[in-house]
Amino acid sequence: MNLPSKLPDVGTTIFTVMSQLANESKAINLSQGFPGFDCDPYLVDLVTRFMKEGKNQYAPMTGIPELREILSEKTKSLYQVDYNSESEVTIVSGATDALFSAVSAVVQPGDEVILLEPAYDSYAPAVKLSGGVAVFVPLNIPEFSVDWDRVKDAITEKTRVIMVNNPHNPSGYVWTKQDLDTLAGLVRDKNIFIISDEVYEHIIFDGRKHLSLMCHPVLKERTFICGSFGKTFHVTGWKIGYCLAPKPLSIEFRKVHQFVTFSTATPLQFALAEYLKDERKYLDLPGFYQKKRDLFCSGLSETDFKFTPSQGSFFQLVSYKHLSSISDYELSVKMCKEVGVACIPISVFFNQKEDHKILRFCFAKSDSELLEALDKLNSSNLF
């Protein structure tokens, strides 16, 4: 039997590789982006309650009405933007489901999709599986802001989608109003859709505000907003997220979603619908995570790494270009095995694996883990 691969260049993700290596090396895992602490016990109690109440069968394909309604209310309260809970809000099995379904709904064979790199590793494969052509536009390094002149130059008659990520993974860059206005100007008179990965919307620092693409009227009408309850409430293993999009876009999105996962775990949806009634559960997150970022950055300042504190997300980048010419992948493996701290080489976020000598650490861990990791980094002889 001969099975030609649809993704011949894709192997096991770096996140799986580094987490496995961390387990084998008994290293502190600051690589994969998942919290190193449990969620609110009340949220677990809610899930248990709804399971006992018999909420264990298929949920509606679009999500239970209670969760869609409160998510619509939350969006209106935070961003002053209306999404109809019946026709424009869809609950999905994780943001990756949302991103894949959005790409599949819009991209036709031969369409071009602009990806701003470094980019999360699920974007390009989704484009390729739909027959699209990924067009990579590099961000400005080291700040990782968008080079809008390059984006403009990359747009052609074949451009169908621009995929964006705000706050950005891996850099933590947070978009400004100027970013939104510039993007709107580029697509205003074109048949170009936007897929916006906003899973870190509530993890943002130093008084910044999350400027969702839905906040700009030109962008809202053509944008799929992809979000994650898992990232927000420290339950990444639940794989539950959502997509907000105008009705014409949601109709096509749902046609795909129903054949990807159809529906999402019912008791989890009921639990989150109840949990979201307390807005402090998400409004307090910036302060919670900023304390962790500050703790981690304070310790990093004692090392030889160079860095600028992350603006958002739960990742911190560090540069070692001034210290060594070793590749970021080699250094990540060495650090995991010899120092006992696992991280991610950001070259994996580039199509051509460009090596800028930058590593990504996840600081969404317990304070004790962060302090232990910092102690190991401070006492290491890597360079």
Largest sheet: 7 strands, mixed
Indicate the mean pLDDT. 96
Query: What quaternary form is this?
Result: single chain
> How big is the Rg?
21 Å
What count of helical segments does DSSP give? 15
Q: Strand fraction band?
A: 5-15%
- Known CATH architecture of the largest domain: 3-Layer(aba) Sandwich
CATH class membership of the largest domain:
Alpha Beta
SSE arrangement, N to C: HEHHEHEHEHEHEHEHEHHHHEHEEEH
For this structure, the CATH topology of the largest domain is: Aspartate Aminotransferase, domain 2
Helix content: 25-40%
Could you name the ranges where pLDDT drops below 50 across 5 or more consecutive residues?
A: none
Number of strands: 12
InterPro entries: Aminotransferase_I/II_large, Kynurenine-oxoglutarate_AT, PyrdxlP-dep_Trfase, PyrdxlP-dep_Trfase_major, PyrdxlP-dep_Trfase_small
GO cellular component, one term: cytoplasm
Domain Aminotransferase class I/classII large: 26-376
Protein name: Aminotransferase, classes I and II
Task: Tell me about this structure.
The chain starts with 13 loop residues before the first helix and ends in a 5-residue tail after the last helix. It is α/β, with parallel strands linked by helices and 383 residues long. It has 15 helices and 12 strands. It folds into 2 domains: 14-32 and 284-378, Aspartate Aminotransferase, domain 1 (Alpha-Beta Complex); 55-280, Aspartate Aminotransferase, domain 2 (3-Layer(aba) Sandwich). α5 (123-129) links the parallel β3 and β4 (133-138). It is globular, with a radius of gyration of 21 Å. Strands 2-8-7-6-5-3-4 form a 7-stranded mixed beta sheet, sandwiched between helices. The protein has a 3-stranded antiparallel beta sheet with strand order 9-12-11. One of its GO terms (molecular function) is kynurenine-oxoglutarate transaminase activity. Belongs to the class-I pyridoxal-phosphate-dependent aminotransferase family. InterPro entries: Aminotransferase_I/II_large, Kynurenine-oxoglutarate_AT, PyrdxlP-dep_Trfase, PyrdxlP-dep_Trfase_major, PyrdxlP-dep_Trfase_small. Its cofactor is pyridoxal 5'-phosphate.
